[in-house]
Amino acid sequence: MAIRFYEQFFVTLITFSIFLTGVLINIIVLLAIKKSNSMSGSFGIITKNQAVCNIIMCLIFLLVTFPLQLSSFPLLIAHSHYFGTAIMSVYEISNGSHFLISLNRFCLLYMPHYYEIIFSNSKTILWRNMLWLSSIICCVYFYEIVDCNYSYDLPSWTFELETTKLCEQVSWYTDFVFNTTVMIVTLFLNLMAAKEGRKQSRRLVNAAGLQLSKVQQRREWNFVKQTCFLGLSMVFSQFSYYVVAPVISDESPILLFFVSTLWAFMHAAEGGIILASNKELRSVYKKTSTVAPG
Questions:
Q1: Is the pTM of this model over 0.85?
Q2: Where are the transmembrane segments (predicted)?
Q3: Where are the chain's structural domains?
Q4: Domain 2-285 - what CATH class?
């Protein structure tokens, strides 16, 4: 019992600290986007949507998973599959938002003449709303109507899918295969956009007979680091859940919980990654702190 309590303490501590931090950081990102003039276009609309997804995901784990880790509430556990469906819906919307962001950058650099047609503010809002609607409908169908509930599992201290043959197939094709494909395509589009962006900036600078500034070089490198890190980490978390977690022994519950929930932890960390790699968003708060004393 002492060991079990010790393990439970660390699991609840990890959940509370990571997701509370995730809520706060992503709220900071969301407020910065609203204040930033450079984020008033389609890119800002999609990034704002991503921050909202991260906040919702963190709040569900903070307000549902964390209390259930502290003490089992039979009524809440019995209805936890509704929260599980919400988690999967937000997860699908988040992956779709990543794809829209990468497609936005790709179109801006490779198809500038069609950019305003595809990603006008009104069209971007339409894509966002369609993404929400389609993700919710699909998740409600697979996780509620088909009855492959994604609910809280007491032994693992996190949400788990029912272990039936049908549910395993649903999870494999609708989650692992589909989302991993979306993530790889998203990463590819981001890398192509980074390559073209670097090429165009060098072309403009060379035409003017100047050298690429260190600020510009650092900005381009930060973009590459952000896209690569986010893309690879999301793919890695997918493989961790489906490949690594099943082979971890039940005798290592903390490690099993961490690996199984790594994909959700990425939503908490994403706000920090966006803020760290986006000088424009950080400058919003610097301006506020500078103006405030006067």
A1: yes
A2: 12-33, 54-77, 130-152, 172-193, 228-248, 254-277
A3: 2-285
A4: mainly alpha
